[in-house]
Amino acid sequence: MFGSNGALKAFASGDRGLPAQIAAEIGRRITLGELKPGSVLPKESEMLQNLRVSRTTLREALKILETKGFISAKPRAGTRVRPPEFWNTLDPIVLSWQGHADDQEGLVQELFEIRLAIEPLAASLAALRGSDLEHLQIRAAFDAMAVEHASEHEAMETDINFHLQIIRAAHNRFLLPVSSVIRAALTISIPKTFKAFGGMQHSLAMHEAIAVAIGKRDATAAAKAAETLLSATYERNFGSIGR
């Protein structure tokens, strides 16, 4: 099962990230449905033979998968794949494992739905709780978006930074893990948006409205501005919400 994948054969010994690479490959197979929930992974001896790694490396890889909620090991029951409801889907590493899922459009849509639920709240909290310095940093992040960029990647990073500055200024420890969702959603969607609109000029005014409202400490206006931006972006990419 594992020996047939060319990617695994490339995992040479001596790579310090080998356990993480093996975990990623197995994790991708689980997210793709090649390894079904409830199925039992091969015996350790078989996996060692196919992967050609040390027992320590394999066990470290399986430990990574277990901590992410993907597998469960029990004596005499073997190591079984767990259902998706146990996966730590907000973990950046787990998000990267899902990058090869067949339903990429559906994955991005679900990421945006989380953004719609979270970012207006984050904007309102940033308006109320953010320090004057953090508000200046949000404004500076917007100004960086508005200038001409040398590459699409540079432009994308300024957009991502703007949204993450707002999350940080919200001062809610439970919002911080959502940063990985925002980064993942933007990383996938921004290239599509650039291709359709030739850049980010069409959305600059909506981004600025968020920064202005936060700077004025107007929580209601900040939440509304964030909702306006996200709803417009969602509709551009997926059509009407709920469709």
Protein described:
There is one protein chain. With about 240 residues, the protein is mainly alpha-helical. The chain folds into 2 domains: about 5-85, Arc Repressor Mutant, subunit A; about 105-240, Up-down Bundle (Four Helix Bundle (Hemerythrin (Met), subunit A)), CATH 1.20.120.530. It is about 65% helix and about 5% strand. It is built from 11 helices and 2 strands. The protein has helices at about 5-10, 20-30, 45-50, 55-65, 90-95, 105-130, 130-145, 150-170, 180-195, 205-215, 220-240; strands spanning about 70-75, 80. A hairpin with a 3-residue loop joins strand 1 (about 70-75) and strand 2 (about 80). Helix 10 (about 205-215) packs antiparallel against helix 11 (about 220-240). The longest helix has 26 residues, at about 105-130. The protein is elongated. Mean pLDDT is about 85; it is low at about 5-15.
Number of helices: 11
The N- and C-terminal alpha carbons lie at a distance of 39 Å
Spell out the helices and strands N to C: HHHHEEHHHHHHH
Strand order of the largest sheet: 1-2
Kindly state the number of beta strands.
2
Largest sheet: 2 strands, antiparallel
User: Nearest-angstrom radius of gyration?
Assistant: 21 Å
- Amount of helix: 55-70%
What count of structural domains? 2
DSSP strand (E) fraction? under 5%
Would you tell me the structural class of the helices and strands?
mainly alpha
At the fourth CATH level, what is the homologous superfamily of the largest domain? GntR ligand-binding domain-like
Overall pLDDT metric:
86
- CATH class category name of the largest domain: Mainly Alpha
